[in-house]
Design brief:
This protein is an alpha/beta fold. It contains nine helices and eight strands. It has an eight-stranded parallel sheet with strand order 1-2-3-4-5-6-7-8, with helices on both faces. It is globular, with a radius of gyration of 17 Å.
Length: 258
Amino acid sequence: MEKLIFDSHAHYYDEAFDSDRDELLKSLPDEGVYKVINSGSDIITSKKCIEISKKYPYCLATVGVHPESANNFNCDFTEELESLLVDNNIAGIGEIGLDYYYSSENHNLQKDIFIKQIKLSKKYNLPIVVHDREAHDDTLEIIKNYNPKGVIHCFSGNLDMANKVMELGMFIGIGGVITFKNAENLAYIVKNIPLECILLETDAPYLSPVPHRGKRCKSSYIKYVAKKIADIKNVSPQEVLSITRKNSLLLFGAEGNL
């Protein structure tokens, strides 16, 4: 089986995989999975991503502090994060960004931590994996000001935002949500942007696509995402998988990692 699936966003350190992590990770290449980007959400989980990448070379690690973890870190966290970049073969910085869904009290702190990590990505010429939840305007402003390379994971903006993101040279991350019944806006965006600007993702163990919605997600389920995108764009699923794999290789593609 040709391995066409490049999962650009997963969390295999999550406790949802504690009972069978090794068995699952051993099986994924036989299910058509070529590469997986495991994204950390804090220092501890970033280290777990690195451990997985050393055991399973097809799993690449990104390290970063998620906005939901912002209150747990002081101004010196960048030193520890940088030490992970120096001492390991890292594919990018993430999952980083802004999340205004739960709180309106720490937006400035979130932006400060986001910007610090973007600066780190520029220093080491690494892409970023961006979390943007109900913070579209601030996310766009920061990306425009600092011009990193990267992907907006689990894209939830509108077509105008997608066009602005692409104009800045960044990719649009599309996962299982595209298969949901209430995903009309996302389907409209996918129809109107080129495949060359899309990365496929799972966010495993979360956001399983139909027909597995509500169950634990895994990277091989990207085939359902590819099928839905293929139907929207009137192309074959193989074309979707092939082009999006090429896109992911382009973004994360230092040959030493891949």
